[in-house]
Amino acid sequence: MRDVLCHECGKTIAERDDLYTYLSMSGIHGLCSDCYMSNQKTLNGVRTPINSQATVFVMIVAIIACALLFMKYRSLVWIIIALFTPVIRFLSWVLIERKLKY
What we know:
Order of helices and strands: EEEEHHH
Oligomer: single chain
Number of domains: 1
Distance between the termini: 15 Å
Largest sheet: 2 strands, antiparallel
Radius of gyration: 16 Å
Number of strands: 4
Strand order of the largest sheet: 1-2
Structural class: alpha+beta
Strand content: 15-25%
């Protein structure tokens, strides 16, 4: 099993409570809590982490909204849009989070 390293400082992340995952143009990355807090203070900092309660809430709202839009317009585009956030969340778990202990 590979260690999870912070994308910014290279520090080993041992527990899930210390991990913040985010999506960038180059993929899904993990940050330690120190780097995440320092990036939040900058203007170009990381926004809401993928592995947060806020992302789960956005995912549920997006699925409901896209389901309603699909029922009204009958377009598969809404299904694809609705699946985007859950797929990103699943990839975050598979690539990074499952390597850590609860």
